[in-house]
Structures are given as C-alpha cells and as structure tokens.
Amino acid sequence: FNNQDSLEEFSGRISQQIEIDSITILNTFKDTLFLEKNKLTNASVLEILIPNTYEVYSNITELELLDLFRRHYKIFWNSTRIKKAKNIGLTQSEVTILASIVQMEQQLKFNEHSKIAGLYINRLKSNMKLQADPTVKYAVGDFTLRRILKKHLKTESPYNTYLHGGLPPGPISIPELQTIDAVLNYESHDYFYMCAKPEYTGYHNFSKTWDQHNVYSNAYHKWSDQQNIR
Asked: What is the pTM of this model?
C-alpha cells in the first residue's frame, strides 16, 4: 500500500488482500489498549503505518497485523533517522506529520519535497503559522478543492494551520518513505512563502519576502481565472 489519505482508506485497501474485513482492521488500529501501548492516539495512529510491500499469508490475524507494522516502524526509524529528527528539533511523530503535509502539498513533483520541507521548517523555527492549504482541505473534509477561499480559511479545526500555530495533532495522510526522508534531509534555504506557478508544470515559485510572494500570487490567481479554475 502507499499514499493512503486515511485509516479508513488504508483499511479498505488491505482488506481486499487478506481475510480480515475493513471494519475489523479499522477497529483493531483504534483499539484503546493498542494506542496506549504504542503511545498513539486516534489522530496519530497513521504514523505507525509504513508504506511498503508486505508479504503475508491471507489468513493473518489482527494481532499479527499489528505486530507486523510495529516491527517495520522500528526498522524504518533506525538510529540514523532518529538522530536526524533530533537535529532538526522534531520528534518522529512531528516529522511524519510534516511529511504528510509536504506530500499533500506536492503530489506530482517529488523532487520539490525537500525544498517545501525546508520552507515549513523555516516557518516553525520563526514561530510563523504554517498556513498550509492541504491542512485546510483536511479540516474542510475535501481534498478535491482546487482553490482555497476565505470561507475555507475560517474553518475551525485543530488541523487548520491558518488558524492555529505549529503542527496539527496528527498526519493528514500516510506519507511515502521518500517524503519522510525529504523532511529529514530538508533543503536549507531562506524561503518562507510559495505559490503554484501559473502554468501546468506542477511546480511552485518560492519567495523570501511577502512582497515577492504577492507578485507570484497575483500572477497565479490571474492565470487561474483565465483557466476557469474554481
């Protein structure tokens, strides 16, 4: 499995490959004892799911499934990655949360992930709000939104990073391994703002100042209107 947006989507995906139904899988990962034992919450449980190809028997049990993901989580978070997270000043959980935002921000051009990660880390270190559009889409409950409007920015949710500072309480998707590594190996730069380029390349314009960002933003919105993007 890869890039699933929610625990529900993940449960539906893997239930097609094993003999456990999706509701049972969902309830297994939401089990209070499991969450407490692994220092997880309903909001953070996605962190333990490492996207990969797993070879199992179709009659694997719920407990065996939990143990499988626990073991692979510990394998992925080796001493090197844990050290990199500490050097950034983030916990393993926070790295995963940030990676989920980076991935939803840029779903086409993965080579831009480390640059976007660097921008968000600059904001965190400067005590600026992340103001990440994907968190607003998550708060609204609609990842299909093509334009974020002022009414969306007012959505009250701990996931709305336009209203609340810092990182949200949990991942907004299950990030790919390479996206987590892009955060751990983020690009060091002085950018604080970004805006989609006014073309269909899928890339962003990055800015160090608000004034420059407004130039890029105005150009993008003008292009969006011309393209009738709503």
From this structure: 0.92
